[in-house]
Design brief:
Length: 430
């Protein structure tokens, strides 16, 4: 006889099967498998072609970027071997917006889209898009009265998180706004640290906005500058960035005539696109180690552009927005020809004069600076060609990624150029 008392087990419900939902999931997975197979085939072909190019040019195909991370606290980002690259050497196709990285992003977005449309597995897709890489460095301690706050913007084109720096001198007056667009693998905190733009904004009493590109949009956090959907007004990422900008202008009653945008690498390309698509919103842009609007229309043409072979595609996207350009002629990631093309897309024509000067920073970086001014003497285009410099923010803080502390100080030079401009630049010239 059982000596134990009876145990009461509560009833529980077994979820009822949903045949329609299961059918949707199966259909989505079949489509996903086909897309994955096509993506892998494209990746394999690209890797084969890349290997052939590397063998032909004897290039170093194992590198991903042309800057080496610090090996210890307080040390700087450096060029491989500690020396500048020969400007005549072949350009390299990093930073890991390469075929493998981009195909991974394509597959990830395909997974999320397929499962999302099927009504299942959305959490899985989001989980796969996060958790890679280490924590970003926190920006420097804030001055008393300053704020560095998180926001989220939502609009017809989607949503994005962003950070906004409010200087201690803000008391409700109409301040200038600088929108800072990070590069691949970066985020707002890292970019704020590396550029020191918050420090510059504190000195000049400006608002700074840092939109964030999530891995759900690109696995390497790159702005998708090479996709046609993100090269147009009122759609894609340009609309998101413009929406964030307008939201900040409205929240802080900022000066609508002094709104600017700047970026590094993919962020620089995004800033160039903003000049072409929103000349009525941005009074000037800064492009550091970036590419011109329309330099590419897909992944293969993006690689061609990054190597300096895609400038022809961008020639028709002229604009009149004042532009400042920084680019190292030792950049193995984005060839320096792209900086020339960004400058060529900007203001030009009769009545403008160019003045070219040479200089060298105390730490030994030589540069050529070209300033194009209108009849009143106001600079409308400024180009800094940094001799021997690589793919890194000039004059940046080594605590942030992709920085070259040797200067010139791109952040302060951009701010100086920005504040000399005011008012809408006009309409886009096609």
């Amino acid at each position: 006889m059982n000596r134990f008392s009876k145990m009461a087990f509560p009833k529980f419900a077994v979820p009822r099967a949903d045949p329609a939902r299961a059918a949707r999931v199966m259909e989505a997975m079949v489509k996903l498998q086909k897309r994955q197979a096509a993506a892998y085939a494209k990746w394999a072909e690209a890797k084969r072609a890349e290997a052939e190019r590397a063998a032909a040019s004897d290039a170093d195909a194992s590198a991903t970027i042309d800057m080496v991370a610090p090996s210890g606290p307080g040390e700087a980002w450096t060029l491989p071997g500690g020396a500048a690259r020969d400007p005549g050497a072949p350009a390299f196709t990093g930073p890991r917006t390469d075929i493998a990285g981009d195909i991974a992003g394509t597959v990830m977005r395909t997974i999320q889209d397929a499962l999302g449309k099927a009504g299942a597995g959305i959490g899985l897709g989001e989980g796969l898009g996060t958790g890679l890489g280490g924590a970003a460095p926190a920006p420097a301690a804030l001055p008393a009265g300053a704020r560095y706050e998180a926001r989220t913007f939502s609009g017809p084109a989607g949503s994005r998180s962003y950070r906004v720096y409010v200087p201690s001198g803000y008391t409700g007056q109409a301040l200038p706004v600088v929108v800072m667009l990070h590069g691949c693998t970066q985020n707002p905190d890292d970019f704020a640290t590396g550029t020191r733009m918050n420090e510059v904004a504190e000195e000049r009493t400006c608002l700074v906005v840092y939109p964030e590109q999530p891995r759900s949009a690109n696995m390497q956090r790159c702005w998708n500058w090479y996709e046609p959907d993100h090269q147009q007004r009122d759609g894609g990422e340009p609309a998101l960035i413009a929406g964030i900008t307008r939201e900040v202008v409205a929240e802080f009653a900022a000066d609508r005539d002094r709104v600017y945008a700047a970026g590094l690498s993919a962020g620089g390309a995004a800033a160039a696109i903003l000049a072409a698509t929103y000349p009525d919103l941005f009074a000037a842009v800064g492009v550091h180690s970036g590419l011109a609007c329309g330099a590419a229309r897909d992944v293969p043409s993006a690689f061609a552009a990054m190597k300096g072979s895609g400038v022809g595609a961008a020639r028709g996207r002229r604009h009149s927005v004042p532009t400042i350009v920084f680019h190292g002629d030792g950049d193995k990631t984005v060839h320096a020809a792209n900086g020339d093309q960004v400058a060529a897309q900007g203001p030009s024509g009769q009545g403008l004069t160019d003045v070219v000067s040479e200089g060298r920073t105390p730490d030994g970086v030589a540069y050529t600076r070209t300033v194009r001014s209108d009849a009143s003497g106001r600079p409308v285009m400024e180009q800094w060609r940094l001799h021997g410099a690589g793919h890194a923010w000039s004059g940046g803080n080594p605590a942030g990624s992709f920085t070259d502390a040797r200067g010139p100080d791109a952040s302060r030079e951009m701010m100086r150029f920005f504040l000399s401009q005011a008012g809408a630049a006009g309409t886009t010239q096609h």
